[in-house]
Amino acid sequence: MADILVLYYSRTGATADMARHVSRGVEAVSGANAVVRTVPPVAPEWQEVASPVPDEGAPFAVVEELEQCHGLILGSPTRFGNMAAPLKYFLDTTTSIWLSGSLAGKPAGVFTSTGSLHGGQESTLLTMMVPLLHHGMYIVGVPYTEPALSKTTTGGTPYGPSHLAGTASNRPVSDEERQLCSALGRRVGELGVQLYGASAP
Questions:
Q1: Mean pLDDT of all residues belonging to the chain
Q2: Which of 2, 18, 59, 199 is least surrounded by CB atoms within 10 angstroms?
Q3: What is the rounded CA–CA span in Å between residue 65 and residue 44?
Q4: pTM higher than 0.90, yes or no?
């Protein structure tokens, strides 16, 4: 099986919901398996330290899981046009993987959720790609051959799925947004299977 790591941070649940739809896309590919993980929040020293195991939802990721995966899909809410600090903090701990080249040649994709339609969806997706490029990964987007990309009136970009959660973070993921999440998962899963079957250890 090609293990595709779906790694996300979610504060209000919208990005976690997108991760579920991305994972379903991965699981729809014969020979692909979705491994869903999250990252803990970060906080100043004076705040309470988070439990090493989340109370609910996906388990926290460990760096070794990036070494072992055959593909990676990152998800984050937008923070001023960039990924949220907890996901960036986790990626900043992956120097050993960069040095070993463990992620080089593996497929990767990104997705995001924002409170407003023009709240930085595309810049967040593009900046999330930068560390993946530094790791030597193959970036996978969502092509316009996916009908939902032309039909959506909320989220959705060729750089990766996006979701318009609303300022109260209470808008559900739309049908088109779900389709685009699934499409990204499927595309990364298919590439993971092809590359894993051909050359993975």
A1: 93
A2: 199
A3: 26
A4: yes
